[in-house]
Every structure is written in structure tokens, then in C-alpha cells.
Amino acid sequence: MNINKVDEFAKEMIFEAGKRIREAFSYDLKVYTKSGANDLVTNIDRETELFFIEKIKASFPQHKILGEEGMGENVTSLEGPVWIIDPIDGTMNFVKQHRHFMITMGFFIDGIGKLGYIFDVMREDLFYAIEGQGAWYNDSPLRKLQPVPLEEAVIGINATWVTPNRVVNHEKMIELVHTIRGTRSYGSAAMEIAFVISGKLDAYISMRLSPWDIGGGTVIAKEVGAIASNLKGEECNLLSKDTFIIANPSIHHQILNDYIEEK
Ligand code: IPD
Ligand code: CA
Ligand code: CA
Ligand code: CA
Questions:
Q1: Whose CA is nearest to atom 12 of ligand 1?
Q2: Ligand 1 pocket residue status of 91, Cβ below 6 Å
Q3: Distance 37 CA to ligand 3 centre (A)
Q4: pLDDT in tens, 117-168
Q5: Looking at the predicted structure, is the pLDDT value of residue 253 above 90?
Q6: Which amino acid residue places its CA nearest to atom 15 of ligand 1?
Q7: Tens of pLDDT along 142-153?
Q8: C-alpha 191 to ligand 3 mean position (Å)
């Protein structure tokens, strides 16, 4: 398989999907809830996932596809070529703010990340990587991340981290917030991962993410030296939900060791 050809195919498909989303959502948006009132999905999330599946199956019928909206197959192993796709990451932003939502996908062969994409649909900004060849923000190569002291770090977390919760000791998180330079909360995991990869954030932490939220991002992370793991410091599992941190390599261990106390 020529990976650069697959990359061209993926980019073309992502740009086309982005155009369709931008054109459709102002006049044809139906919003539904899934597991609860705050868990949204729209007709466009589903249609976009289906669009990707049809495109991939037409060119690569043997590839497996894991997508958030379940329009693909039930993927239980990462053996062979596998696409992991979130057609819209940040659906609440999509519905409410009409911006700050991403298409994100990763392409893996036997569990090894080959291609990763995070596309800001409204800005038409693409973060992507090809394993071993590097990472890019549109046409500009992304540099390896430079060390940053924790005191100067800006970290993506949301308010649940500093209020009593079931996942971590929130008092330690308050300490972290007091130590660093600032926090941000954007409402799209893929966007926050893209920001860490490009040095606009120095870390992003989440209590629970799914494979499609992080699949593409983990491939790009490797090319710039960002470290992605669960909160135990273990490698990300791309078949089940887990805790998640991605950080500049100079502060990844420090955050996990000194501030994250899992319950
Ligand atoms: C969600 C977003 C959000 C994160 C949630 C994800 P979705 O993805 O990435 O920022 O906090 O955990 O589920 O549902 O909008 O694709
Ligand atoms: Ca969702
Ligand atoms: Ca998502
Ligand atoms: Ca989604």
C-alpha cells in the first residue's frame, strides 16, 4: 500500500465532507439526544460518517472502519488496515456555536498509526501527519515541541476537574491550576489535541474519551514528540474508552506524578 496515496485520498475526502457540512447545516440541521440531554448528535454527524464509510469502502473494501455513530462495523480488533473516525468532534459546539468542531480520523495498520487528521471545518484548517514523514498545519511543517516549564504552561481542562468528581482528587487539580500560567476549555477534544500538537496548549486532560476522539491525534502527536497516554501513563487503548492526557514531553510525567491522583 502506498501510504502517500492513501493520504491524498483521505485529505480529498475530508475537504469534501467539510464543504458538505458548511453548506448543509444552516438549512438542514436536526438535533437528537443519545445517552442523555447533554449528549447530542445531528443528522449531519450521521450523514458525514456514512459519507466517509461509502468513500472508503468504494476504494478499499477490505479496510475496517470504526466510527462514533456506529454506521460502520463492530470493530473488535486492530488487526489489518483500520480507520477510526469521528465525523464531527464537538457536536455541542457545532449545534450551539456553529464553530470549533472538527472532523478527525486516524488510519492504522495492525494497530500502528500511519495517518492522522484533525480538520477545523469552519476555519478550513488541517492538522495532519504521516508516520515517519512528519506533521503539518496546512502547508507548514509542525516543529518538534520545545520544553516548557510547568509554571509557564497553558493547559486544556474543564471545570469538572476542580469540583468534586469520581475520577481524581480535585484538590490536587486546584494546586495544578494555581501552579500553571492558565487554563482553556474549548469543547472539542480533537481541537484541544491539535492545539497541544502545535504548541498553542501545553497539555490537555480528559476524564473519559473514546477511540475516535483521539485516534487521529495520537498519530500526529508522535511526529511532534507530544506524549499521549491514559492517566496511569499507559499507552492509549484504541478499542475502548479511557482517561486521557496529551502533553508537551517536558511536563507529561510531572503532571501525572505530582498532580493526578486517581480514585
Ligand atoms: C466530545 C467532545 C468533548 C469531550 C467529550 C467528547 P463529540 O465529542 O470531544 O470535547 O469532552 O468527551 O465526547 O461527542 O462532540 O464527538
Ligand atoms: Ca458524540
Ligand atoms: Ca468526539
Ligand atoms: Ca462526534
A1: 209
A2: yes
A3: 16
A4: 999 999 999 999 999 999 999 999 999 999 999 999 999 999 999 999 999 9
A5: yes
A6: 90
A7: 999 999 999 999
A8: 10
Q: Which domains does the chain have, with CATH numbers?
A: 3-141 (3.30.540.10), 150-259 (3.40.190.80)
pTM, two decimal places? 0.97
Residue 12 CA to ligand 1 center (angstroms) comes to: 24
Tell me the HSE value of 178 on the side-chain side, using a 13 A CA sphere.
8
What value of ipTM does the predicted structure carry?
0.98
> What separation in Å is there between the alpha carbon of 259 and the centre of ligand 4?
29
Q: Quick one: which atom of ligand 1 is closest to the CA of 208? A: 12
